[in-house]
Every structure is written in C-alpha cells, then in structure tokens.
Amino acid sequence: MPESKIRVLIVDDEQDQLSLVERTLSAFGFDVRTHRSSLGVSNLVRTTQPDLVLLDVNIPALSGDRVLTLARGQAPRGTKFILYSASDESQLRALARASGADGYISKSVQGEDLVRKLEALHQKPAAPEPVPAAR
Are 63 and 34 in contact (CB under 8 A)? Predict the structure, then answer.
C-alpha cells in the first residue's frame, strides 16, 4: 500500500520563491498548497489540514512567528509549523524557539536537502500538549 503524500502549506509573499519550493516539493511527491499572504492562514490551515506549514518569517501584515501563534489554534493535532527565512540561522533558531515553532529552515536550503529536512521534521514526534496546572 503506498504511503500517503505529505501535505505541505507554503506561506510566502515572494512569488518566485513560492513557485520554486512548490515545484521542488511536488517533484518529490509532496501534496503542496501555497498562499501569498499572512492573512487567511488560520482558515487555510483549518480547511486544508496540512501535515507541515512552511512559514516565511518576513511577510507583510503579520510576521511568520505571529501567524504561527494564530494558526496553531486552528490546526489539526500533529500539524507542524516550520519557520522559513533568509535571516541569519542563529536568529532564525532563536525565533523558532521563542515562537514555539516545530523547526526552522533557511531559504538557502533547496532541492533534495529541503526535501530531506521536511521529511525529517514530518517524522519527528509532535511536542506533547501542555497539561494545565492543577489549582
């Protein structure tokens, strides 16, 4: 029985970057959806139920880390959010940690390397849900 495709939602305001990543991931068997704005991501996450959301950090209106916070509440359990940026890797790592992202990938990572990183993030166990403190 064939494995189901990994569903990815890519959010980036740069059309060329969006097209490049979409073509790459589609060629490797991913089910890809794209979105060019930070607005509407929460609804898209709820309706398309992606396995992974690749979020550009530097996107107009709301930054990727803010979009992550809003969209996570609408996402199915197990959806992983990955910050994606051309920013310095140490800054990207710190932002991913501070925002609760499941990972980060530099935009310099492309082709098969991008595919491998996304597959690894997809296979990584989801963080456990926080348990409310007893009163």
Answer: no
